[in-house]
Fold this sequence. Notes:
Blueprint: H1 4-8, H2 15-18, H3 20-33, E1 36-40, E2 49-55, E3 58-64, E4 70-74, E5 89-91, E6 95-96, E7 103-104, E8 110-112, E9 131-132, E10 135-137, E11 140-143, H4 151-155, H5 158-161, H6 164-169, E12 171-180, H7 184-191, H8 197-200, H9 202-207, E13 214-217, E14 221-225, E15 244-248, E16 252-257, E17 260-270, E18 273-282, H10 288-315, H11 332-348
Amino acid sequence: xxxxxxxxxxxxxxxxxxxxxxxxxxxxxxxxxxxxxxxxxxxxxxxxxxxxxxxxxxxxxxxxxxxxxxxxxxxxxxxxxxxxxxxxxxxxxxxxxxxxxxxxxxxxxxxxxxxxxxxxxxxxxxxxxxxxxxxxxxxxxxxxxxxxxxxxxxxxxxxxxxxxxxxxxxxxxxxxxxxxxxxxxxxxxxxxxxxxxxxxxxxxxxxxxxxxxxxxxxxxxxxxxxxxxxxxxxxxxxxxxxxxxxxxxxxxxxxxxxxxxxxxxxxxxxxxxxxxxxxxxxxxxxxxxxxxxxxxxxxxxxxxxxxxxxxxxxxxxxxxxxxxxxxxxxxxxxxxxxxxxxxxxxxxx
Length: 349
């Protein structure tokens, strides 16, 4: 039975994609609470190594310490905001600020603060580097900046639906970044519905069975089933004709097909611009040639999505459009995304 809210509902208003105030709310309240993909969990292979990240405006550093433990710390010194590390990735001897040489333990505790002996009410223990949670799922590493939904609840049924033996065999292969001149939510909207398949993706629509394409919504994610046509095509090469597409709130996509995991992370750059980060993992049996073929097809689809998303972003400024209606049979996952945005905004406001 279809949700009455879906049958009667309206999409997010255009100002949600155009407003400075809405974007500022997202920056201050939505993104800090969101679980987000850092990247491949094997990025640091040696003890006393690090990698820096720009994480929603925060400078963070992932370290593999001398005891081989992974930690995610702020890369901002507690003295006057100098960087602990400047290079993106390297080995380290110590965690020492590059500005005034305050040094920290690998736990983040302040170890030394030169020439601070005369400062009143100054205790080393008051100036630790903030530490952030790390969660691993297969080869993927996740974190967030503030408390919110637990990782287990956020991942939900995905943890039981994706075979652990597949995750354990995935190896990191490649990354590609794409710039799209649209609001990040618009790109997510587009991902969450197959309604545009025949109009925007003529080649993809020949590969997938549009009539059997369906979406199921869960608490913090949705799942799209996209059966391929029975004849051999680019996705199957005569193998099991099925692909699974997951979206996790607010901006992560997991695409699983034929021993390959492709992740898409949609990162806001400005109100009307986003960067989409594509990463590929694959089992050893997937050849470089086969993966390159699939990446080439993915780029074809990405270019088609980029073009239509940029058109819609421009048209959202129309004097004669504010919001639209949902297709009950094709846009339930899109409605779910909008409901989550609106409910969180009400709770926090």
